[in-house]
Request: fold
Amino acid sequence: MTVNPHDTDVLIIGSGAAGLTAALNLADRFRVTVLAKSRIDDGSTAWAQGGIAAVLEPGDTFDSHVEDTMVAGAGLNQRETVEFVVGQAPRAIARLVELGVPFNMEGNALHLTREGGHSHRRIVHVNDATGWAVQQALQHAAEAHPNITLVPNRVAIDLATSRHEMRYSGAGNVWGVYAVNRETGRVELFTARATILATGGAGRTYLFSTAPRGATGDGIAMAWRAGARVANMEFMQFHPTCLYNLDIKNFLITEAVRGEGGHLLLPDHQGVAGGHRFMPDFDPRAELAPRDVVARAIDHEIKRLGLDYVHLDISHKGAEFVRGHFPTIYEKLLGLGIDMTREPIPVVPAQHYTCGGIIIDRDGRTDLPGLYAAGECSESGLHGANRLASNSLLECFVFGESAASHIAAHWADLPPPPAIRPWDESRVADSDEEVVIKQNWTEIRRFMWNYVGIVRTTKRLERAQHRINMLSEEVDDYYGHFRVTPDLIELRNLLQTADLIVRCALARRESRGLHYTLDYPHMLPIAHDTILVP
Ligand code: FAD
Ligand code: SIN
Reply:
């Protein structure tokens, strides 16, 4: 009998596309517990707009999807991984259809849209709110399964490892996690034979990000602290078209708007009439170039002309087409006084996706026995130096299933957890100055935006590093003295992730994909990963 209070077979931290896919693939054989930081649908998955990439149309080929992924990723992708994921895509879509995801249809076939970097129409979608439909379908299936327990409002603090065993075995396994219960404020211990990190990205390290509030890199930071390697964190993706609005800082305007013919135009500025379509000046693929190219072009024009934003215009396609294809965005903008069927949308680039993360193999295994990872928190080799549009949800489905399959196939080799020490509750003092947390959150996000953004220099990166070092001392001291709270946990992880991003960026002495530095503007002939070893 176990002495650990919340023991299960498999523990999954994260209830988005990756976590729930893994859970559904395990639940027929094992007891599965899934933790979420707040609501079960609080991750990026529910916010996804454009769709999921898969080769489904006659005339399109796996080779073409592989090539587009490699071109966007500036050759840093692992080709075998790309081939594996692309090959699994049609099956992943078929399973979502079985789960009831109401994809848009054209006759008897799935309707396919197009996005930047894709040389074919290959994005299945549910209007312009694909992620919400996917999250609902996965969640309903998980709620209905008797072997899956969904536990909202638990903020994981740190992985439970050999260091936390009552009798130290030295085996180096991961046995679960310590997490704060938001309702009681108490720290609970969850143990399992296998733990899967599916905690999403780290977008909130930046001031402007399309990602939800909880994208603070928790899984990446926890895995790093437990001893797992992390790679390619310099490749933070900036989506070219986030709505420019001083109150709403994170509303995405899907890439499908450009895919369906939207143009990027200069706005009127200082008495000069706008309307110039500038993307053809930068790249022959114009608005359909990969994201890094389009985001850099917009950033260049904004800085060159002193603009606040540029315009994205699709009004020339007609009101019926626009409302039919983008009903969610149309309604949202109308509520803000912008009629996208008649006028252009003001847009700016914003952080959108974390390409790097915890290193995993094809089976979702990390460096640590018993620990797996899937989805945006992981580095699988799929995205290389820049993720291709709509490949991210796909990665979640494929690696969520791979991790589950490996656990099932090797169950006998996974030892049950020994007795683990409960959380040390001796730090009972409440923080004396909550303002410290807020101040540091804002400071990190601002210097990451200014110094570690779309265009970098070594000097700017060193400035960021200097600030991270100073703040680390303060946050460590704070963490060591006061009761852990969700905000403090996130601040600690935000800082840890910022440090990993800057260390990777300083180590890369070239410009490749999303990492563009004025000090090393050229791409080296041989692509190499930036691997950080704890
Ligand atoms: P998420 O869905 O982000 O889920 C993370 C989970 O981890 C959450 O349940 C959270 O509560 C939990 N968690 C995190 N930290 C902790 C902790 N400390 N303790 C407990 N639980 C924790 N990709 C596409 O392919 N197509 C698209 O159209 C698309 N559109 C996008 C639009 C937007 C606005 C955004 C932000 C992203 C978009 N992406 C898209 C990217 C894609 O949505 C994400 O990469 C993907 O959903 C990530 O899924 P995930 O399962 O890895 O993590
Ligand atoms: C979008 O709809 O533009 C987002 C797609 C993605 O992030 O892959």
About this structure: The radius of gyration is 23 Å. Residues 82 and 376 are 15 Å apart (CA to CA). The chain has three domains: 3-235+355-413, 239-352, 434-532. The longest strand covers residues 345-354.
